[in-house]
Known about the structure:
The complex is a heterotrimer.
Chain A: H1 6-21, E1 31-37, H2 49-63, E2 66-72, H3 76-91, E3 95-101, E4 104-107, E5 110-113, E6 130-131, H4 132-139, E7 145-151, H5 157-166, H6 168-171, E8 174-175, E9 187-191, H7 208-216, H8 223-237, E10 245-249, H9 274-284, H10 290-300, H11 304-319, E11 376-383, H12 394-411, E12 416-423, H13 428-440, E13 446-449, H14 453-466, E14 469-472, E15 489-491, H15 496-509, E16 514-520, H16 523-538, E17 542-549, H17 557-566, E18 570-574, H18 577-589, E19 598-601, H19 606-612, H20 614-617, E20 621-624, H21 632-644, H22 652-671, H23 677-686, E21 689-691, E22 695-699, E23 705-706, E24 709-714, E25 727-733, H24 735-738
Parallel strand pairs in A: 1-2, 1-3, 3-7, 7-9, 11-12, 11-13, 13-14, 14-15, 16-17, 16-18, 18-19
Antiparallel strand pairs in A: 4-5, 4-8, 5-6, 9-10, 20-24, 21-22, 22-23, 24-25
Helix pairs in contact in A: 2-7, 7-8, 9-10, 9-11, 10-11, 12-22, 13-14, 15-16, 22-23
Chain B: E1 3-4, E2 7-8, H1 9-40, H2 47-65, H3 69-90, H4 100-122, E3 138-140, E4 145-147, H5 148-170, H6 172-182, H7 184-189, H8 194-216, H9 226-241, H10 246-266, H11 274-285
Antiparallel strand pairs in B: 1-2, 3-4
Chain C: E1 6-15, E2 18-28, E3 33-38, H1 44-52, E4 57-64, E5 67-68, H2 74-80, E6 82-85, H3 97-102, H4 114-120, H5 122-126, H6 137-149, E7 155-159, H7 167-182, E8 186-191, H8 194-200, E9 203-208, E10 211-217, H9 225-232
Parallel strand pairs in C: 3-8, 3-9, 6-7, 7-8
Antiparallel strand pairs in C: 1-2, 1-4, 4-5, 9-10
Amino acid sequence: MGFRGGFRLRLALAILLFAGCFSVPALAERRVALVVGNGAYKNAARLPNPKNDAEDVAAALKRGGFETIVGLDLDKAGMDDATARFARAAREADVAIFYYSGHAMQFSGVNYLMPVDARLTDETDLRRMVRVDDIVADVQQAKNLRIMVLDSCRDNPLAEELKRSIGRTRAAAVSRGLAKIDSPQGMIVAYSTQSGRTAEDGTGRNSPYTTAFLKHIEATDEIGTVFRRVSADVYEGTKRTQLPELSLSFIGEFYLRGRPTPTIAAPSPVPTPVNEAASAWSVIQNTTSQAVLEDFIRQFGGTIYGSLARARLDELKKSLVAVAAPVAPAVPPQLAQPAKSAPPVQQAVVAPPTRPSAPSADAPKPAVGVFPASRTVKIGVLSDMSSLYADLGGPGSTAAAKLAIADFAQTNPEIKVELLSSDHQNKPDIGSNIASQWFDVDKVDMIVDTPNSGVALAVSQVTTTKNKVFIVSGAASSDLTGPRCNANTVHWTYDTWMLANSTAKAVVKTGGNSWFFLTADYAFGHALERDTAAVVEKNGGKVLNKVRHPLNTSDFSSFLLQAQASKAKVIGLANAGGDTLNSIKQAAEFGIVKGGQSLAGLLIFASDVNALGLATAQGLVLTESWYWDANDANRAWTKRWQTERPGKFPNMVQAGVYAGTLHYLKSVAALMSATDGKAVVAKMKETPTDDPLFGKGTVRADGRKTHDVFLFEVKKPSESKYPGDLYKLRATIPASEAFRPLAEGNCPLARG
Amino acid sequence: MFEIFGIPSNALFSQLLIGLINGSFYALLSLGLAVIFGMLNIINFSHGAQYMMGAFVAYLLLQYSGLNYWWALIVAPILVGLTGVLIERLLLQWLYKLDHLYGLLLTFGLALIIEGVFRNYFGASGLPYQVPDALRGGTNLGFMFLPNYRAWVIFISLVVCFGTWFVIERTKLGSNLRAATENPTLVRAFGINVPRMITLTYGFGVALAALAGVMAAPIYNVSPQMGADLIIVVFAVVVIGGMGSIMGAIVTGFGLGVVEGLTKVFFPEASNTVIFVIMAIVLLIRPAGLFGRGT
Amino acid sequence: MSEPMLKVEQLEAWYGESHVLHGVGLEIAEGEVVTLLGRNGAGKTTTLKSIMGIVGRRAGSVTFEGKETITRTSDAIARAGIALCPEERGIFASLDVEENLLLPPQVRPGGLSVEQIFELFPNLRERLHSQGTKLSGGEQQMLAIGRILRTGARLLLLDEPTEGLAPVIIQQIGKTIRMLKTRGFTILLVEQNFRFAQTVADRYYVMEHGRIIDHMANADIEANVGKLHEYLGV
């Protein structure tokens, strides 16, 4: 004995400890930007907006962590200087953006940006301009992501002069607008309008494109989504005259602002060999035939060329002003990650057998008239069976699903249903591997439950690629019916928007109009805080301050002290699970509630209230969409559920699993087929729901199931008469108000 | 009220006090770990699980035997300490002759098993446990409201830490232990039953962990995961303090609690990682730890 | 004098795979001082360790006061009344002098009192609270001998007590051993220096390659000096 351990041991220990604590966010990324706005032209029409555009964009980028070089009204020398500095900076950078607002023109297929002292008497004067290709080369030096935005193509007066000087025959070489830029690999190129078209100046402080850009550039969405939104806004905002052109050719996902919960985004199934897709794409990329593009998407949907094809299909449809077809959000796929425990996914993207993949608005009818007797409908409960969320979903969800299957068998004994269950361990890669395996190998038709938003988002992606059905009950993120929605996913029980809206609104209305937020420092906590703060402010309250704590903190005393010092009437807990429990428990210790402040738990379940005990949790106000003791039907169902889970009580997640599964099975029965996921989900949306647990409701176009939602207050220990008697009802919020309005979600399915 | 670095003095003092309270927790937990490592050369990765068991035993005692917090303070460490004795006799004693890493792996595996069993049986959410009546409420110190229970935690930690230090450094039992750490064979050849001493020492270290668990039950969520969250930090404390140094563990525990508390004021998002940054620096400059005695 | 206090027969010992003692046999009567002589590596220390029970694996028979000890653990053997003063003294660095001195527990009544030990070794009293290893070599040796005198053990195993010490200290140790003998202690002494051994011992065993190769009484030493020189390679 004795300390003979030596260096090796200490090293091992240190490594182990580091592995355990590795939660340091990736901050080391270097971002550089060059923003130029040229408006004060000496020899051409002056433009009022570019200077404003450049200033505003530069400010926004600086906030986003970019080292920004700003150039306002630059002459040729100025532009050369700025671009040289930018080139140097871009060499060392991970992300580089070039944003230009001002005159630009095209000559013989080459694009030029015009400095303020540009004049065009003849061709040689083109040397006074700045070639866009040069800047493209500069931007290309950044390591990870390169973005070019040209807000120009305004009416180009100098072009007329040039035309006159070079003679009529060659005037054709000078065209309005700019030529399409070849986007090399790994770039985003955004034009404020289509090639060959002109853009508007706009009448406000900024041009229409820049206005839209400023609106979206600080969002927390993936960069592709951001730019698509900008395009959409411009198109609508200019009354469908100006359609920005967007070309994305990079691999991976990029977020300018934070990442969504919890960790790694979904790996898609291994894409088909990129070479094949690449050569096919090179052949068809300029096609104007929708059918060709749809066929391509069907074959190579999982590759980056699939995204390009989808984007092109989008443009085609919009430019033809056709009925907007719902488009699956083109998420650039991840490089497939090696599975940690589940066997690696081997199958390539399997095209759905008979349906075209560009979904149309009406659900196709099935061919056969009777449900085939040999066909078993398979359902998988994918949940956290063993850790933090095991009480939320877990084996209780499996029990709920069993009940749904049993009840369905009463009315439809001819349809065989089989149930599987598995543990996703709160890891998105494991979850999506299990989902893929289930869909491909075990022929599962529908997956249900999945608490943990990160896993749910990943599984949702897998489900839509394989055209199966995913019914989310446990996960919270409102993105599932927002920008990440798809035609194969239904979000049943609750989401962050509903929680924030119901609880916060009720609290503010009853006098809690000054808030202090205690927020878990990751995207989920930020989102919850943001949604709730918005509701507070909308209802006349004020957010005094906030503090962010690391995920999985045990001791909140220091943060609670800050909350106390703020003297806010309400302390909003924008966290979940163990963090929430610890916050509440310790708030009681520090006499926070006794001191007159109240706690608003933004994400609390009955199982959490049980964990706290009524003595500590009493008075807490929270929102749930189902409570076992609310009425006789719920109680009766609970009794049945308890035969599988004695001593425990079901919560809204598990009730949602039951109701969602039942509605699914009924839709399958009506359709007499379970094969086409989109069709089944469409049927689920078509059919109003009426189940013993949630009553009447609907599944909306964006996949959101709506139902009445209830504001509860936790009873005092003296008020609780029997085990499980936890809540008293404070208010009922009708389905029409409880969930985020369809139009506000940014779900492509919700449009048109 | 004046300001220091832009933070009002009130806030600063209150955070320092909070840091001290947390530090006393760290000290108590790392003490057990330091005793076990220092004396036995075993890296007891199941320390967190044993801390959790202490909290759960407190809950169970209350639920099923009606024994309250005060009883639990004594009974729970003894019960959990006994399980430690069992573990040492049945499993650990075969590993002393081998590389340290075997002990680490064994105790790590035990931790997973224990946590899994508890989670299976009790669920993941946690169980309620209240602050005992006698310690409810608090005093207004002017710059902050200090809950009585937290003051109690500091008090007990200091007492236990000092007591343990005293036993090890100033009593015959302690000198037997220290000698056995250096040269167990010779000590045994003097007639001292060294294997039994080792067993009891391990049991004592485990009992310390369980005691910390009982102390934690009223204020932290009693769940099967509660140990896993804390154990990593405690290991960092022991490494910084110098593995095997009792005084090192105590001083470092308190000290790092204060450092963490200050970080929560000035840069809250980093409060999780500051301890590991310090650990990395200390290992580079003084690999044996601040108070360690080197190889 | 009936049964010898210590009787070793056919003692074998192994360190891991290597077989180091081959059938060692010796006897010590109560009150005797017996020396094990031999070169480095002859197996002397191993013999002491085997008697004490701290060698890897042993076989054969070791009887102490009529009872077999070959299968007993070392602490049991210590408690039976045997004490070891190891080669290189074994002073603990993490203990001070007083703690070192008081470390070995009393196994039998009749040991020296602390006062008596201080009379023997006055230096120890002066350095009582120094860290154990800060003492000089000679002081450490005295401490090592002193602490086992307190235990009440009647058979003392002394392993090379004079190694590396100055002549004046060696003399003091010799005086001490003779004094112990008069008080009735039984001592098995391991030495390379047979001139020193001559001043204290009654009988000698010579070891080589793990075996006893010769045995003589004190009276025969002078006659066999040449042979001894050969054995010890001096």
